[in-house]
Specification:
Distance between the termini: 92 Å
Radius of gyration: 32 Å
Number of strands: 3
Strand order of the largest sheet: 1-2-3
Structural class: mainly alpha
Largest sheet: 3 strands, antiparallel
Strand content: 5-15%
Order of helices and strands: HHHEHHEEHH
Number of domains: 2
Shape: elongated
Helix content: 25-40%
């Protein structure tokens, strides 16, 4: 059986057509891969920035000292998460709209920055309603339930007050980044030239007042006969120390009845060098 010669041009033409069809799909995809990677990078950095905002409230809140200024917090987020990767951690250091403070990777195909204006395009807000103030953005939470279940309201209140636990609620940090559109004069970048993309991430934590500032504050909070019944032995400590001293001739240290300081985590001096 012989092949018809007229079939050969058709076969070669079919292969070329298939290649062109596949190229129409793959070439724009290859061109967009760097931009998709940059968008994923923005999503990750926005998530990390929201965690920074949320966990900052663990040490800066109205029960510890005071909330950090929203403007200061936003400035730190812009400089430390959305400017140059090696940005130093300095107080009152803000990101400027010039090349020295821009991430060189975050640019479009024409080398224009994807964050056109740090102040306008990177926003920090708080709570489910994206409030501009931290204090009014807390959502209700059942922080006191473990103590309320004790059955004795007076005892539960005393424990909560002694430990410094406050029913603050859930604190949410929101970070939103608005990105510039891609150039409109390149067909391969459509429809990314008009999507007005913005990335938003949020992180929620339960804020309470028991983030102690130092070991001494921890000791002060648990120094209660209700929390540590052993503190009732303090009055007999001198007598016990005298009896041990007589019986052991000073070879055994005196018992530290009712003391809490020896529970503190102390770093040896030689480890601080």
């Amino acid at each position: 059986m012989t092949k018809h010669p007229a079939c050969r041009p058709y076969i070669h033409g079919q292969a070329l057509t298939e290649f062109l069809v596949v190229a129409l799909v793959l070439v724009p995809l290859y061109l967009l891969m760097p931009m998709i990677a940059k968008y994923q990078d923005f999503a990750y950095q926005t998530l990390m920035a929201s965690r920074y905002v949320a966990f900052d409230a663990a040490v800066n809140n109205e029960w510890q000292n005071t909330w950090k200024s929203p403007a200061q917090l936003a400035g730190e987020v812009r400089r430390r998460f959305f400017s140059t990767p090696d940005a130093p951690i300095k107080t009152n250091d803000t990101a400027g709209n010039f090349s020295a403070h821009r991430n060189p990777y975050w640019s479009d195909p024409k080398n224009e920055p994807l964050i056109a204006d740090f102040d306008a395009d990177v926003a920090v807000s708080f709570g489910q309603n994206r409030s501009q103030a931290q204090a009014g953005s807390l959502a209700a939470a059942s922080d006191g339930d473990p103590f309320n279940r004790l059955g004795n309201t007076e005892v539960a209140t005393h424990i909560a007050d002694q430990l410094g636990l406050k029913p603050a609620g859930v604190y949410t940090g929101d970070v939103t980044v608005r990105l510039a559109n891609l150039p409109a004069d390149v067909a391969a970048y459509q429809p990314f030239d008009k999507i007005n993309l913005s990335v938003t991430r949020r992180t929620s934590v339960i804020v309470d007042g028991w983030a102690a500032a130092d070991p001494e504050q921890v000791v002060k909070r648990i120094d209660s006969k209700l929390l540590v019944p052993g503190t009732l032995l303090r009055p007999v400590q001198p007598l016990a120390a005298a009896l041990v001293g007589i019986a052991e001739a000073g070879q055994v240290p005196a018992p530290r009845l009712g003391e809490l300081e020896f529970w503190s985590d102390v770093v040896p001096p030689d480890r601080l060098k």
